[in-house]
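Attaching the record inline, Q. Sequence:
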Amino acid sequence: MRILAGLRDADRSLTKRTASGIPPGVGKVLSAVEETAESTKLWCGAAAAMAWLGGWRGRRAAVSGLAALAVAQLVSNGVCKQVAGRPRPPKEWFPHDEVDDRPDSSSFPSGHTAAAVAFTAAVAPTWPVAGALCAVPAGMVALERVQSGAHYPSDVATGAVIGLVGAWLTRQAPRLILRHWFPS
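Structure, as predicted:
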């Protein structure tokens, strides 16, 4: 129990420090990136650009990224948020008005982070340069979710883990399906 209390205290402390430690100009940039990522617009746009500009590798990366994103969204928003029911961080911790624009759904886990990490992690093995480029806005989205008051750091970390698992499952699924349906 002491470990959980310590983790909860660290989560609260990190949330408060992030909320007050990010300069307003940086916060506006983070918010702009998050706004483009809202409803997966950023990742769908990146997938379209990859498919159009990247030949077979771009199309494969785009399909992998979107499939992983769908898995991560299903797990984070369709399952975990429905079960967890964690309230968002208290509004009084945040010295800006962005906190008024956050969703009413459960705070745990961060679906935005899950989607961003899943897309990026699924794209990277097929097209490392595109994966590295996607990692920048993915990191910004994760940071913004805490800075804006939408999530605790543990929500974001859990969303990132869900994203990584979603990317791994997406990459492994064809092999696992073939092994199950066509054993050697």
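The mean pLDDT is 91. Residues 55-84 form the longest helix (30 residues).

More tomorrow.
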